[in-house]
Specification:
3-stranded antiparallel beta sheet; alpha/beta; Alkaline Phosphatase, subunit A; 13 helices
Length: about 425
């Protein structure tokens, strides 16, 4: 059994291999006695949220100014602003679903923007393929081995990078994090730092032998810093975290994930890219309108994001939050008062460097001859252009063509939503 296979199969994947990090309890035996990692300075942080299952962007960001919207959705349309349970008006044409009203202050303060009619140029209606294409950054190409966020990390790598540079609050490493750059996946900071595994003495001894095998090995080069970071998290007592500025996170998966990402940002562990996700968006049946299934999901989604931005406050100067979903849903509701797999969608961007208070994108409309294949919102902004603008302007990525292979990123395609 070689060293990498041992780490992969024993659940002890460390950041040095870009695998899920379990950080078992016995690692603390080898950790440095200090209770804080070295200072990594103030970092720009990109926080990504994947809405898995294809959110209905037409009810999330409501085109209430397009009369066809109400013709296509007689039972699930969100009423016009000013009516009972109506949309929260943004610009006279678009509005927020009323369950997302907590995001309205960020729109008014120009910290939030939306790119509508965005998505993938690939027409697949497969959740699996579309998610893979979006996370790999290569729509239509299944052979890509790494993810776009990992490539962004590779392009900005430095000698003193933190082992907590890229963290996903997920059960397994997301496709977007696959690759050579260090990355970690975990579901709970407290478990990671304090009680992340029970292992036998035999395995403990085995790992110690592996760790000491070679001073030149890539594990031993990053291992000491990883152990220090684990100790730092332990000392910070994640379970006792207190949000600031009156922020209240929902007790949901997304709420807990964003709260822990906020904690990592405040802790100064060198975080640069964070990943969270929320599921349940595949609303084929009884989707609901202003109330119901989708409304409940959007309420948690909006409240989680609002709590995150409120909690961080002035720290949002260095944080950019970006939402995405694999594709949108049909413009016309189906016979089950739901929506089916579609094409174009809406993405939300939030941060203090955002040129907010504006809906970006080329809105073609919802008439039959304006729809993709006569049924879906057309994609007029390639998601790679949005990702590229975030990666270059916020993270400082330089070579955008290597960030998105086989796609000629042209900065003239940028929507200009960042300063």
């Amino acid at each position: 059994m070689d060293r990498r296979y041992f780490l992969r199969t024993s659940g002890i994947g460390l950041a040095s291999f870009g695998l899920m990090a379990a950080a078992p309890e016995f690692l603390h035996q080898f950790a440095s006695a200090q209770n804080a990692v070295k200072g990594y300075g103030k970092k720009k942080v990109l926080v990504t949220i994947f809405q898995r299952g294809a959110v209905d962007g037409l009810n999330m960001i409501v085109p209430h100014g397009d009369s066809e919207y109400y013709s296509l959705r007689r039972s699930i349309a969100i009423p016009n602003p000013g009516k009972a349970d109506g949309a929260v008006d943004l610009d006279g044409h678009f509005g927020l679903h009323p369950a997302m009203k907590n995001l309205e202050p960020f729109w008014k303060s120009k910290q939030m923007t939306i790119i509508h009619a965005s998505g993938s140029p690939d027409n697949t209606r497969s959740h699996f393929d579309a998610q893979d294409y979006m996370e790999s950054g290569t729509p239509g190409l299944k052979s890509t081995r790494d993810g776009w966020l990992n490539r962004a990390m590779q392009s900005t790598a430095g000698k003193e990078d933190s082992p907590f540079r890229a963290v996903a609050l997920t059960r397994s490493l997301p496709r977007a994090f696959y690759g050579k750059a260090p990355s970690i996946a975990m579901t709970n900071l407290a478990d990671f730092a304090v009680k992340a595994g029970i292992y036998t003495q035999e395995i403990k001894g085995g790992f110690e032998g592996v760790y000491q095998q070679s001073a030149k090995d890539s594990l031993s080069e990053t291992g000491a810093e990883t152990f220090e970071a684990v100790n730092f998290l332990k000392a910070s007592n994640p379970a006792q975290y207190k949000p600031e500025n009156g922020a209240v996170y929902p007790p949901s998966q997304l709420g807990r994930s964003l709260m822990q990402i906020a904690q990592l940002i405040k802790a100064g562990v060198g975080l640069e890219v964070a990943f969270a996700e929320a599921g349940g968006w595949d609303t084929h049946v009884n989707q609901g309108g202003s109330r119901g299934q989708l409304a409940n999901l959007l309420r948690d989604f909006g409240n989680s994001i609002a709590a995150f931005a409120t909690d961080l406050g002035k720290r949002m100067d260095d944080v950019l939050l970006l939402t995405m979903s694999e594709f949108g849903r049909t413009a016309r509701e189906n016979g089950s008062r739901g929506t089916d797999h579609g094409h174009g969608n809406a993405m939300i961007v939030l941060g203090n460097t955002v040129k907010g208070g504006k809906v970006y994108g080329d809105w073609k409309g919802l008439k039959d001859d304006q729809l993709n294949e006569g049924r879906d919102l057309a994609v007029t902004t390639d998601f790679r252009d949005i990702f590229a603008e975030a990666a270059s302007k916020h993270l400082g990525a330089k070579d955008l063509n290597s960030l998105f292979p086989k796609y000629a990123v042209n900065k003239t395609n940028f929507r200009g939503f960042l300063s």
